[in-house]
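Why predict the complex rather than its parts? Because the way molecules touch one another can change local conformation, and only a joint prediction can capture that. The input here totals 918 residues.
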Amino acid sequence: MSGFLKEFFEPRGVALVGATRTPGFGYGIPLMLKGQGWGERLYLVNPSATELHGMKVYPRVADVPDPVDLAVVIVGAAAVPGALNEIGARGIRSVVIESAGFAEAGDEGRALQEKALAVAREHGIRVIGPNCVGVVNTKNRFTTVEIIEEALQPGNVGIIAQSGVFGNVLLDGLHERGLHVAKAVTLGNRMDVNECDVLDYLRHDPDTRVIMMYLEGAADGRRLIETLGRVTRDKPVLVLKSGRTGAGRAAAASHTGSMSGEDALYDAAFAQSGAIRAQSLEELLGFARVFATQPLPAGPRLGVVTSSGSLGALAADAAVSAGLELPALSAATAQKMREGAPGWMNVKNPLDVGPSGLYQKAVAAMLQDPAVDMVLAVAIIPFAVVRQFKPFGLTPKTWFGDLASIRALAPHKPFALCAVGHSEFIADMASLSGPSIPLFTSPEPAARALAALWKHQRR
Amino acid sequence: MSGFLKEFFEPRGVALVGATRTPGFGYGIPLMLKGQGWGERLYLVNPSATELHGMKVYPRVADVPDPVDLAVVIVGAAAVPGALNEIGARGIRSVVIESAGFAEAGDEGRALQEKALAVAREHGIRVIGPNCVGVVNTKNRFTTVEIIEEALQPGNVGIIAQSGVFGNVLLDGLHERGLHVAKAVTLGNRMDVNECDVLDYLRHDPDTRVIMMYLEGAADGRRLIETLGRVTRDKPVLVLKSGRTGAGRAAAASHTGSMSGEDALYDAAFAQSGAIRAQSLEELLGFARVFATQPLPAGPRLGVVTSSGSLGALAADAAVSAGLELPALSAATAQKMREGAPGWMNVKNPLDVGPSGLYQKAVAAMLQDPAVDMVLAVAIIPFAVVRQFKPFGLTPKTWFGDLASIRALAPHKPFALCAVGHSEFIADMASLSGPSIPLFTSPEPAARALAALWKHQRR
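Output of the joint prediction:
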């Protein structure tokens, strides 16, 4: 039902209406696309130019050669309805409108948006936008927005963002957290295509494993619940929902009454439909990291191994509050751990091994314990010790083992690592754990992310 | 009433009982203290050694010369009561016991701890520990634990941590967040000195501006409420409380009932006594950063300036949920902002200036608006743009202004900055804002930290 979106992500040819020599989207996007190998399939349109970045500029959309599936519109808002008319006449049925100055800009803009929509409907055109930055498809390196090279590394994350800038926020920072995008869409004013269309499309996209969505409000509440209910049976959908209008109301009224009421409705809708709601941007990113790299757990039973009792306790608190259980270790695991353990070590869950040297053994045993569905390893060692022993060849691997290999003992169980303290220590732990293990730098977010896996799986 | 703690932080001389050549505390702490200039005031004790790190080793505590105010005990648990007897006989009245193997290690250890306490009482000795790493005083570079050089930079944060490792966690990471310690204490098993003694001491410590406390349980609930009620009238106390025992119970029972009950009591106690409870380690650190650098607000009215509507909305949501208000701008400020603003810009709070170029003006106007008690500036610009314009000399300062100077327009109002996205952009923003402005990398924690300032001030 949303197969029509294929033309947005995999156009055979693209008309860019509003290419221009002045700095901005009309200058930068052609350069970006040319750099990604799209020069031959990109047709720039501007009645008052003939050449840009060494590419021919066509005076009218009608002049653009075949094949062309998609138009990207960057002209001033007032010129958009006319451009849509030309685009429709040329037989193009997919359009990204990046121009701003529509419904978000008041009554006049709202009228203009309705006019544009009428033109689009007349021609059977499907529109993403206006007031957005369109799409990114890392697989074919197609993008209707200037993004950094690093963000084009193909991955398994699907992004749906209502706001263009927010899309950029994610695209700029994800790769540094080990997350890579499959497809991203910014929706803007949603005059036609909305989050439901994209959710259904990403549901069938083989490259997308987890969907991150930022919403300021549902375009159609009932349809969103239905769509989420369908999509979350196949793929996890992580939602960050702000109350843009709610906060505006709150700002005016200096009270939160209506906002929390509305927010509770969203909470219920997400819970009912199986979407996982993140409470903050950081939490959204943390959730995405475990869904992008970890299997789903068979049950809610978390094993915690730690070299700090305090951090283990904080992790346990967060895990239990988020719906996980901390089971007792199975008799065999407990027996195994008691052998060779110093007298002060309490063999329980969380398993605080302190400076016993048993960290590796404990993580392996916990991962292999049939009483445990997933494992959180908390690693901390005073950095004065790390620094002191580094010259003697002792590294975090000495203290904590080859975590990537140990983790492979139970590839079917989710595993996360939490390393706290000095940035150099955390960087060492990141190399040690590698890309298959999500690394958190404090215990609570790690525990909540693992809980999100179970929340999705339980459904 | 807790003036006796002075000897722990400013001893004229220190006896270290259990200095040894084998790796560990007994080897490392003497080296650490010597490196910090304490060699002349440090008296190592070990009956079976004569020299360590070029320092004389005394066979018995009785041999240690005057003046000596403090003993640090690192011998095996079983030898501690005997050591306390020697220490008491030598006239030393302040002792840090770092040795483990007491109440935390079961019934036998508990009996040993009671025995040690009896000896201490007999001699009128005050004890920090056992099972701790003692104290740090950055002003005189005195420390009973090996910590990294960076952690000894003097600052205005007081730390009370029940667990030794947790103290290290903080000491390893704080300087990277612009936080610097005045005094730190790890309490361990609290056989004598507890968090209340230290709270009262730090209350009167002129170097301590904000107190961070990590607790696993109150030593004496009623006294803690009384003490906090007294201390928080003078200084903010930020508390992170884990339910170590609660999590243990929860682990066994796989249910959270009793734990949440207990936790609710702590919540109420902290609220009643004016302490600010952090919900996570990250939140504790975020709170500390605003308290360490910002003035207290005159009221709950937050002004938000942003270059991203989405992030502004997320900040507003978090602020209002945490008890702040987002007032309408005063007429004069609104008028000032409307002049020269593009048509698409909505002059309201949050004030989303988008790419208008009015960011600096907006932050200045917001800071000077009498309707606003504190300001959160959210800065984001797609990193592709930053990278593209850098060769032309355009930097974050071009887009966002000299924030350190702008902030100085209203030094009496709390100010925080949130920069989101690429690490290089965040690093640029950190240099731009400088040490007087706390920089957050996502909007919700920034808003909640400002709300914590108001929560304390309201009291």
